[in-house]
Design goal:
The protein has 184 residues and is of the alpha/beta class. It is built from five helices and seven strands. Helix 1 (20-23) links the parallel strand 1 (8-12) and strand 2 (29-34). It binds S-adenosylmethionine. The site of S-adenosylmethionine has 18 residues, from loops.
């Protein structure tokens, strides 16, 4: 993650803390949240820095006050939510000119093989790793980069960068897209 200073940061869908461990090194304080208590429990076990707190939150309707954060991070989560509702909530809790960062699974960035791999691996890891079935309507709100950028503009954000990253050293790696936008 190639970011400057992130100030007070809220992370949504922290899961097992994969991104949290990078975010705590770049922000003054991190409020790492997830809708699933089991995920938060795993993340808490993994990360022990003094600038992180863990909290149960639905990113579509949080308990945070208006303009509470400099940065919000949404990691591989937007497709599980009603995207417009999530972006409206991010706009509410971010300070003016606050930064919103996404990691997103863009179907347009996936080659044929990666597409098949995603379809197999995501439910497989959910069932074997976390013992959960994919939620109903799973995948309904998966968004391409263009769809997400258009929705950001409609939701009072200005897109400042998009980048797709694939770790070519790992044959099973699926490309992940990063989008940065500021609240206008
Ligand atoms: C694919 S996982 C990504 C986890 C982590 N960001 C990562 O990349 O390793 C999606 C996470 O979003 C959480 N989640 C799903 N719906 C949510 C919602 N409405 N609000 C907050 N978190 C949610 C899930 O519990 C899960 O931990």
């Amino acid at each position: 993650m190639n970011e400057g200073h992130l100030g007070a940061l809220a992370e949504f869908g922290c899961g097992t803390g994969f991104y949290t461990q990078a975010l705590v090194t770049r922000a003054d304080r991190v409020t790492a949240t997830d809708i699933a208590p089991g995920m938060l429990a795993v993340a808490k076990e993994r990360i022990h820095t003094s600038n992180v707190t863990f909290q149960l939150e639905d990113c579509q309707a949080t308990s945070f006050p208006d303009e509470a954060f400099d940065t919000a991070f949404i990691g591989l989560l937007i497709h599980f939510t009603e995207p417009a509702k999530t972006l409206a909530e991010m706009c509410r809790i971010l300070k003016p000119r606050g930064l919103l960062i996404f990691s997103n699974l863009d179907p347009d960035a996936l080659s044929g093989v990666d597409r098949v791999r995603c379809l197999v691996r995501i439910p497989y890891h959910g069932i074997t790793g976390y013992r959960v079935k994919p939620p109903r309507a799973f995948g309904k709100n998966i968004m391409t980069e263009k769809q997400l950028c258009d929705l950001l503009v409609k939701s009072r954000f200005q897109v400042i960068s998009t980048e797709t990253i694939k770790d070519t050293s790992c044959s099973s790696n699926i490309p992940v897209e990063y989008i940065r936008a500021v609240k206008v």
